[in-house]
C-alpha cells in the first residue's frame, strides 16, 4: 500500500541530494478545503452510532481482551463527581455521570463469553443486565459481594495502577469499601486491571475505523478554513484571532475540543536555533512572508483527533510557495515515512523511536519525534514514541508494545535552514491522525503534503 515505505533509504538519498524533491513524491497526501465537505450529526443522531460501536466492542473486543489479559472478572466502580477515566467508554449514551455509586461487573464465562452486569440504583439498560436496583448503599455493596462470591472468579481486575492514570480510577475509599465486603479469600484474588484497561482504550474496532476518517477530516477542514483569506487578512489578523476562529468554528459545528487551539508564526529574523524545542511565536499580527502553524484537537462520536498543519502567507507580487519551503515540507513528510515504516507489531514505542532516529540521521534530517496514541482520548494510553523533551527511551509507557488495530497522532518536526531566510531554520511541525492495522500505517484522512496558502 505504501511504496514509499519499501524504499525509505533510497528516498532519503534522493531528498538529501536533490533539494528540489517535492510533495508529489509522497503518498497519502490529501487536500481538504473546508469542513463543509463533511456532515456532522446532531447530538440526538449521534446516540445510535455511538451505542452501536459500544455494543460491537462489548460483544467482540472485550471477551478477547479479558482472555488475553487473564482477567476472569473486571470491576469498574465509581461515583458521581469522581468518575473512573474508563467509565464513559463503557456506558451507553446519553450518559453524563455515574449516578450515586455505579458498579459495572464483567464476568468471563467458561465458553469465553462475557456477562455485562450492573449493580446500580438506576439501571443502565443495554448492553447491561441489571442484577440489583433500589435499596440503600449498604445493600448495594452486599449485592456486589454476593454476586462476586456466586461467580467465584479466580482473578478479579480492579482499576488501580501506579503508572497508567487511565487505569487508576478506583478511588481509595471505594477500594477500602470493596475489601470490607469481600471474604479474605476473594480479597487475595484482586489484581490490577491496568493491562486490560490500556488494551481496551487503545484498540479500535471495524465500526470505529469506518467513521474515524470523517472525524479527522472535519478537524482538517476547519484548519483549511482558518488558513485562508476568508479568515486571515495579512497585516491585520493576529494569531489569536485565528485560534479563536478555530474554537468558535468547532463550537458552531457542535464538535467539542479537548484543548484550546493555538496558532503560532515563524518569520525571517525571529530566530530558530538548532537547540530550540519549538520556534513558533504567538501574540503577533500575521504578515506577508510568514509561516503559520496550528495545533487542534476535537472529539466526535467518542473518537478524538490531534492535528498540526502549516500555511504560508504569500509576499506581495508572488503567486507560488517558494521551492525552499516546498522542499522543507517534503523533508517533514520524509520524517513521517521513517516513523511509520518503523511500526511493527510487538515492537515497543522506544524501539520505534530508535529506528526512526536512525533513519533520520542517515537522511541528515534534524528531526524530533513525539508521537502518541489516539482514540477515546487525544493523549491516549499505549506506546509513547518519543517526547518533545526526551528523544531517548521513555520508561514504562515507551516499553509498551505496538498492537494491531490502534491509532496514533504521527507527531514531530524537522528543522530546515532556508537561504531565503539567510540560513535561519524553519521548523516544519506536522501531526496527522493515522491507523495501524498490524501491517501498515494509513492516515485516516490523508496528510498534509502541500502548504495552505494565504494570498
Automatic annotation (TrEMBL):
Residues 1-23 form the signal peptide. Residues 217-376 form the Peptidase M24 domain. Keywords: Signal. The keyword Secreted does not apply. SUPFAM superfamilies: Creatinase/aminopeptidase (SSF55920). Coiled coil: none annotated. Pfam families: Peptidase_M24. The keyword Signal applies. InterPro entries: Creatinase/aminopeptidase-like, Pept_M24, Peptidase_M24B. This is M24 family metallopeptidase. It comes from Pseudidiomarina terrestris.
